[in-house]
Structures are given as C-alpha cells and as structure tokens.
Write a structure and sequence with these properties.
The protein has 226 residues and is α+β, with helices and mostly antiparallel strands. It is built from 5 helices and 12 strands. The relative contact order is 0.20.
Amino acid sequence: MERPPLSLGTSAQAAIEEFLSVAQPRRGGDLLDADPIVHARGDVTPWQFLCGLAARCEIVFHGTGDPNIESFVPRQPIDVAPFGRQKAVFGTTDPIWAMFYAVVDRDRYRLTLNNACILLDEADGGGLPYYYFSITDTALPEKPWRTGYVYFLPAETFVAQPAATYAGHAARVPQLASPVAVRPFARIRVAPEDFPFLGQIRGHEDDRLAEYAQAIMAAAPSPWPD
C-alpha cells in the first residue's frame, strides 16, 4: 500500500514549528510530551504531523505501548531478516511504520507481526514509501488494538539497514539499529484511529511466516490466504 498523500495545513505546520522550537534544547534532558502540541489542535492529524516532522529533520521513531520508557536498551529480536536478527535498539525514520507497533497490542493478545516499509529509490534521490501490515489471522477478528506511543530518538548511534534490490528496483527499508542504549527526547500518544491503515491490516498464518517474508522480499505473487 502506498502512503496517503501528505498535505500539511497551517495548523500542522505550526505544530511542527512549535515542536522543533521546544524539542531541540531538550535533547539529553527531560522527555518532551508532544500531545499538547498536536492533540490540542483539533485539526492536526498525528500521522501527517509525524511525517511532516520526519521530512524536516533526522529522527528515529519507535512505537510501543509503554508510556514510561526512559531508555531503550539493545535486545535480541526474533526476525527472519539478517539485519533484524542483531542485538540492538531498533527504530525507523518512517513514523507510520512505528505507529503500527504502537497500536497493535502484543501484551494482552497472543499474535505475531509480519510487516514492512519499503522505499523505492528514484533518480532524484527521493523515494515513495510502500507498506504492508499483518498480524496472526486468528487474532485479527478480536481487533487487538490499543492506544500507544511513538518515541522520538536521536539518530547519532543508529546505523541504517543497507539498500537492496526489490523486484529489479533499487530500494531500501528505513529500519535502523543502535548497538548501544538510546535515551528518547520526546514522545506522542497515538490511538488506533490515528493509524491510517487500521482497516487494511491483513491476517497471516503463523506457521507460514518465513514463506511470506521470502515471497514479499522477492516480490513474488501474493502468498496471502484468501
């Protein structure tokens, strides 16, 4: 799925400017709560604020359900991709991808995730983000969503996942890893309805996760069950 058009209104642009004016001095200090900056403006869509902010400055985003994280420490995840199998703090420069991890409730529901964001590199250096989002098919009817948080992390210690070829096109996955602990400098609360692809999250069979991953990265015909 392609990212929806990004159209920043006056209020969203003002929210970005206000955030930047107060966030920069706080790096390394107390955690900034961005909720009053964004949610107090009734006409600002959180995902558009986040994507507009990501276009302005280098920030690594991390989605979670925990509102009280003071420091992210390296952990060893379960991942079929080589880059994702290292012990590290993981994040992304794409905030919509981070929002998925914020709103899917893996604490109260037993489920696995199968998802990605892929940027197709273009001659001008730009790239269009494409996504897919999936959870365990038996959990999907339960609507296992929650209100979560997207944290803002400084990018200095992060290394980007190397670019690759996707279906003959130069592409990259905007995933980054830090081998050392990282202290966030801000966070924003996001509700399930803030996630622009909530109604398009698919279901998968857990025992076919490796098959799905290989087919998607090879741009093979869709392996998804009907």
